[in-house]
Write a structure and sequence with these properties.
Strand content: 15-25%
Distance between the termini: 43 Å
Shape: elongated
Radius of gyration: 27 Å
Number of helices: 15
Structural class: alpha+beta
Largest sheet: 8 strands, mixed
Strand order of the largest sheet: 1-5-6-11-10-9-7-8
Length: 426
Amino acid sequence: MVKAVRGMRDILPEQSRRWRLVEDTLAAVLTGHAYEEIRLPLLEFTELFARGVGEATDIVEKEMYTLADRDGDSLSLRPEGTASSVRMLQEHGLLFNQTQRICYAGPMFRYEKPQKGRYRQFYQIGAEAYGLAGPDIDAELIGLGWACWQALGITEMVTLEINTLGSGTARQQYREALVAFLTPLKDRLDEDSQRRLSTNPMRILDSKNPATQGLLVEAPKLPDFVDADSTAHYEGLKTLLSAMGIPFRENHKLVRGLDYYTHTVFEWVTSDLGSQGAVCAGGRYDGLVERLGGKPTPAVGFAIGLDRVVLLHELAHKDAPSDKTTTATDVYICVPDQSVMSGAMNQARLLREALPVLRVRLHMGSGNLKKQLKKADASGARVAVIFDAESESAGTLTLKHLRDAELGQETLPYDDAVGRLRREIC
């Protein structure tokens, strides 16, 4: 038997209903904040991520799915959305001397060790703003995340952590000081941190190894290297967040794993999903557009890990209308006389047009009325419509109320039947 590739998972119908609920809720919040949707290709030139994300990052070094096409070009499945967004906006002339607020959604791919909440094909919803340099847009993006959690009813399950990396110059100075401090201690670092010391040393601050964290106690502190302008920006952000009533905690070890971040970085984290604590992360990347060949452009954004947010939603709303106990059917049309199947198909179309919010299923295949009604009941439908030759000739519908014994069964003229369905179900 052929199985799914490790780290690539199937999302079954009952799971998809919850996913759709979460996706639609988040899309409504993004639309309400006037962020416009873009759609990104799955494949990009590998160079885009090497230049944008950073050649020394774990993503580019170890995690990308890369292939050579028939022209010999190196292509990669997108591991994140920001580099692709910048490429798209730049390619279509939508950045220089302009402001943009955009959002995107879809699968990303990284070769990571699969576990609950972390997959090799995972899903993100991102929001980004370009052309705005002040802390107000940072606060708006964080407020947008807060609005998402409120809409999903999971605010009590997430905590906002913030930090500032300072300017690119300040970040480089801190990196050099950190390397100078840790180099004599290299043999005492964990294996990943030893590798990162020469490639991406600031990621060592994120190490989960207790011994490495013990060594970092005496390490240089990032806030000591942040320049005055960045500090003012950061203080302005904290003032705005407090005014907006958004609780946060400062985490000076928060650096993010991508090379393009400067100034503000933030994460929404949870303790309800085990080791996979980050559910949304982002920050400023003012130098990224220029790095990818454009004019200097301030930018800030975030990406929501949809896989983990769906898990949180399931924990918070076990009885949401997407569980296995719910159904995808409202009305089930039984056709005991197959000679009128064409009329029944037309009747199903008319019902969907008249009552577009209803989910109408038409019985297919043989089976007497008793068996069809049994299937209608199993489908979860509230009403079975019995459509036979008499219904077709008389212009009536017979409604059998499956969830209300008192209403029982009734035969009504078509318009009256539509009105009854509208009152009872819609």
